[in-house]
Structure formats: structure tokens, C-alpha cells
Amino acid sequence: MTLILDPDDPAGWREAPPAIDAGTTGSRLTDGLNPEQREAVEYRGPALLIVAGAGSGKTRVLTHRIASLIESREAWPSQILAITFTNKAAAEMRERVQALLGESASGMWISTFHSACVRILRREAESIGLSSTFTIYDSADQRTILKRIIKELDADTMGFTPASAQAKISKLKNELADVETHARNANMNDPQEVMFLEIFRQYTRRLRAASALDFDDLIAETVYLFRAFPKVAALYQRRFRHILVDEYQDTNHAQYSLIHELTRPVPREIVDELDAHGILVRGMTDGSGAIPGASLTVVGDSDQSIYAFRGADIRNISEFERDFPGAKVVLLEQNYRSTQNILSAANAVISNNFDRKEKKLWTADGDGDKIVGYTGYTAHDEAQFIADEIESLHRAGVAYRDIAVFYRTNAQTRALEEIFVRSALPYRVVGGTKFYERAEIKDAMAYLIAVANPVDELALRRILNTPKRGIGPATETALASFAEQNELSFRQAMRAADGLGLGPKVTGAISALANVLDEAAAMLVPSAEGLEAGTNAGAAKVSDVLVFLVERSGLLDALRNSRDPQDETRAENVEELVAQTRDFDRENPGATLVDFLTQVSLVAAADELDDASGTVSLMTLHTAKGLEYHAVFLTGIEEGLLPHQMSASEPGGPAEERRLFYVGITRARKRLYLSLAMSRAQFGEVAVAMPSRYLQEIPEGLIDWRQSPGMATSRGGTQPRALNARRGEPGGAWGTRDRDLERFSVTRSDKPKTEWANRVTGTVRDNGDLTLAPGDRIRHTDFGEGKVTQVTGEGTKRIAHVSFDTAGQKKLLIKIAPIEKL
DNA sequence: GGGTGCGGTGTTTTT
DNA sequence: CACCGCACCC
């Protein structure tokens, strides 16, 4: 029988730990595991490193390990802290543990690094002089602030850009270097460094003044908190007896330090103090009166380390045994996900990275199908191949949700989306241009932030003249300097607008806005009973506050009454945001506005994935980490894209790009497609693309080239040859056989060269109310003539299923397809 | 104070 | 190509 503790129940912190009753770990939790997995579940000791190759069942091992700790009564749920890479992974892990235990195990902290830190920081905010309603600034917010600072300091003349300053500040924070630490190491004779220091100092000051933290601060400030307040740290060190970290290869120095602080023993003096404060420590101390450090389990695979650009340090995992002497290491190599052909390709590619521990994935499930390769002339050609192939997989019974398309850069979605829309292929772009990044949504969110955190000047300045109320830059500056001179916040200056001697119209507008914000703030105060009980009872719901704000501020009306046709969509987006807050209120009863803002700030791209959706998923290779699909399309496998141009100059760049390719390959269960284009439009210009060097690292026999780079380059003879296809050796590495050439020349028919370049980007058609019925014959500009076999869908989404005479079966969106009825 | 249009510029991956 | 900043005009 396991006692479940409520995480928010203060008693949970005082509850006696369960008696250790080793040996009761039910075999149920290790049944069906291989010997290595079993060992990873059952090992007990201070430190455990699970080196888990792709698809080796590490999530299974982690969930079973947690369940076994709880079931054997070695730990309460509240003593578990598990760190995952996305919120979605956290939710899944929680569900799986609960399913294993057969009861709710609330009280466990299963979350991302960032979520866990926000939770700690909001709770302990006052220790470090921060408001518990602090705002979390995203990259765009950082950029805005840095832009202002650089402009004020004229730092652009020294070559500083918001992006460069942002990167440098982020890098320092990930190394736990704050302004003063950095100042000590800086070379004050270098004017550039002096200037950077000033930018960094101002940036830090402004975030402080706004009671705001950026993403990197969330981790770094938690570490500073623990280091500066050992008694605060002790609360968490005492509580979390078992810490588990997933994707450990992608932790940066700050995250590593956080884990280090959390696993420290609590010294005897502090234990005594905790005891004096009524916090239960009996039974937790060792012979010396100290509480020993928590046990640490990390899971990772250095071959999948792909976040060096945000400070991930591969040494955290490769030197784990040195950092934690006596650590146990368990190696999981058996793969339960992919076919041997896919694994062989992955093994071959990754073996080209030197300086790695030899590890070979294997499966007992057989070779499976060959990997399919395709080289298009353009990105659209490549996309068309993918769309056709997806349709044929779908006809063969593969659900759309089991198919994913990966790419290196977000810009690559363009061509894919164009073709997918035309092919009436249901798809969803995961990540990319996010809903919350739209200007109107950021505006509405800024209203909420301004209410939740009144000292947030960035949010206030954003909404000051949105919608237009005649408050221009001059008035804004007047308010800002009035605030500074009188040591007021920007918000207080707004309330005092009457005394500023501004025009009556402007003054009225400022006061009206200040009033709306004050009224909204009043809505959020809990009732007397709520305050008494320390809950949010009686406070207005997030959706009610948002509706009040967007109505009373005039934001929604301004969009609705605008003559800009795009504003109609923007108004709908704001209404969609309202709908989202309603969902939030319903799903999180008792949650506060700050809870909502936090959740929005910390959504990861992969969190948007909806398993129930019947759509193909499109995402970057980075977002794909940790996921798996029946069929995977890796696109744009070209020099310059993978490896990316920008990585060439970075130390370790090409090796990291190879790991990215490796991650992509190992996401596939049964079918893997590798595709590329001969030419790719990069910022307007069409550039010649070469096959990626990584393609040749895959043994030839594993790939079935439907159209190889050799075949494609031979067209017209004017294109450069495939990379590394040796001169004087016909076909080179790509095996350009005559038979293929013949087949190829038939495929491309007699179209002139230029047709390939613009066949899709040309005009966006609108066939209006063209009606088609089964039996009709049509002509398509690319596919030629064909017969309509079926029409599905309604209105603008009507889809014609066409059997083309030479191009085979296709689905077309009638409204925009380049077709005519015959 | 607000709107339009020109020209310059950047250009990876993400919590 | 797309976005942003700036200058110009109302």
C-alpha cells in the first residue's frame, strides 16, 4: 500500500519517509525486460548512468524504475524528481508510472528543467528579491530590450546587433557567469568588451526592474538561490531523495550545476535547524547527523547530443563516472524500434564521428525494407515525391499520424506545405511559427502580463498605444523620464498622468488605460475566504479577465472595425486565445493568471503534438528528438543544409550535424526515406545543391535510389556532378546505370528546363466553383490528363481523387489545383 | 501622431 | 525573399 502525498499539502514536506523494505520489488515491474534494462530498474546506489541508444526502451526503464521505488516503499512519490525534455514527455511519464502503480501518484515532480525551476523560484522568490509573479521573457522580448539598449549606447557602431548580444549573454548565463563575474575576467583595454559589459549590465538591470527573468535565468537564478541560501536548498535536498534526468547529454553547465546542488548532502548544522523549525528529519540522517545526498539517475546517449549551440556540454555525460565516483553504468544497445536496415545505416553514419564510445544498435526483428532515396530537381519536386509516397503509404494502410517529415531549417516547410495543400494531404507543422508569436496574440498577452506583473515595463510599453490611442513616442518618453525622476514605476507614472502637463486627449487616454488595468487587477484578488485559506477562491477566471481586457481596452473593437482585411483574422486569433483561456480554466480549476502565463511561456514545440490527430507531422530534426514514427522522411539531405552552412565554422559543428542526421534516421520504425533537391531557393536566388557528405556514409546496398543524385545530375550534362562522384569513373559512388538513365529520361518527359523551376510557385489559382463529378476527365498542368474517380469534402475543401493516365493516382484540392475540365 | 513606401540587411537549430 | 528601420508626407 502506497500512501500518496499531495504536492501542495505542506504536510507532504513533513511526512516521515517510508521504511525501506528492500526485496519487495514485484517481478511484475521487471517482466519482459532484457537483463540490462532489468539491472537499470533494480540497481540501487548513489549514482546510475544509463547509456541508452536510440529506441532501446529508456522511457520504459525510467518509468519502471520510478514505479519500483514507490511500490517497494523505498520512496514516497513526493521524493521523486524526474526531469524530462518536454512537458509532453513529462505528462506521458506521469501517466505511465500511474498506470504501473494502478493508482494516482500525485506528488511526484515530473517536469522540464525550466518548469521545475519556475516552480521553485515562484515559491522562493522573496529570498532573492523577486516578485513571485515575475514575467518570463522569451527571445523576442530579449531582442526588443537589447535593441533599445544598443540604440541608446550607440553600440551598433561597434558591430553589436541584438542577435549577437543575445547569443553572448545566453552563453555566459549558461556558464553561470553573471555580470560581475564576467567583469572580473574581462579585458578592460578592449573597448568592445567594455561595451559588451555595459550592454550586459543594462540588460540585467532592466530585467530586474521589470521583475523579469529570461529562459537562461530560470536555471541560473535557481542555482544562485541554492548557493546563496543553503537553508532554502536544504528543503529541496531533503525532499528529493531520487532525482532522474532524461536526455542528460543535452544538459548545459547551469543545468548540470543545478543537479549538483540538488544532490548535495544536507550538513548536520542545517539538519538541526530544519528540525528546530518542525521539519521532519528523523530517520533521514546518517551516522554523522547529516542527510545524505539524493540518488541520481541519468539517462542519455552522447550520439544524440544536438544542443551544443545552447550550451549543452557532452562532457556532462562522458565524464559522469568521474563526477560521481562509484557510479554504476548500464548500457542499453538492443533496439526495439527500427528495422536492421535502418539501424545499420544509423550505425554506419555515426561511426564516422571519432572520439566516441563504440556502440552498435541491433535488433532481433529482421532487416525490413530498404531505405528509399530520391533526388528531385527542385524542393517542389522533392516535396511532390514525398506527397505521392505518403499517399501510397496511406493507401497501403499507414495512418497519417504515423508519418513524419523532418527538415533542418524551418524555411524548408514552405515548399512542402505548398505541395501538401495542393495534394489535399492532411498535415500539421509542429513548432515553427507559433500561435503565441503573432503580434495580436502578443498584444493580448501583454495586457495579461501587465496585470499580473505591474512593474513589467516592456509589457506596458507594448500596450501603451495598442490599439492606437494617440500616445506616441514623445509621450512615452515623457512618462518614462517622469517615472525615473520620481523613482516610480512606469505604471505608477501612468496613474499620475494628470500632473504631467500633457494634452487633455493624451492624458485621458493614459488614465483610461491605467484604470482598465487597475480594474482587471482588482478582479484577480481572491475573496476573504480564499485569502484566509491561501487559495485562489473568489478570484476571476483567466478567461474573464482576458475578455474584460480585450473588450475594455478597445483592442478587439479596433481589429473588428479595421478596414485592413487581415485584421479580421487577427480578431479571430484573439478570440481563439480567449477560447484557449477557457480551456485552461476548465482543465485547471483554481489555477491563477500567473499559472496560465507560465504555461504559455514554457510550451515546447513538441508539446503541440496531438496523438489523436489524423495528420502527417512536419518538424525540424531538433524537435523530432525523442519521437518515433512508422515512416519517416528526412528531407534536404544536402551540403549546406545538412550539414548546415553555419555549422562549418563552429568547432565540432560537422560532428554535431552528423548526430542530428543520426537522430533523424533512428526515429523511423519501418520505413525511412532520404530525399534531397538538386537546386534550392535560398533567399530569392536559386542555388545549386550538392548531396550531403553523410549520404555516402550509408552502405550502398541499404538504399534503393528511386532517383539518385547521379541520375539527376546527368540531366542535360550541365549540372555539377554529385559530390565525390569521382571523375573519370562513370557513375561514381552513386551507380548511374544506363537502365536508370533511360527510365529517368522517360519520367521527365519532354518538358523544357524552366518548367521545373516554377511549376508550383507560379500562380496561385482559384478555380472558384468548378464542379467535378466522378467520371469527368480533366487536364492537370503537371500530371497530364486523368479521370476523376471520386469527390470528397465540402466547399473550398472539396477534393478530387483523380486517376491520371501516366502519373497515377492523386488527390487534388479542387479550388486551387492547376486543372481544367475537359 | 499616423501612414506609406523605399532601401538595406540578414540568412540554423530552441527552452 | 521577407522583415525592419527610416524618411517623408498628410
TrEMBL record:
Its EC number is 5.6.2.4. GO terms for biological process: recombinational repair. SUPFAM superfamilies: P-loop containing nucleoside triphosphate hydrolases (SSF52540). The keyword Transcription does not apply. It holds the Pfam family UvrD-helicase. Keywords: ATP-binding, DNA-binding, Helicase, Hydrolase, Isomerase, Nucleotide-binding. This is DNA 3'-5' helicase. It comes from Agromyces cerinus subsp. cerinus.
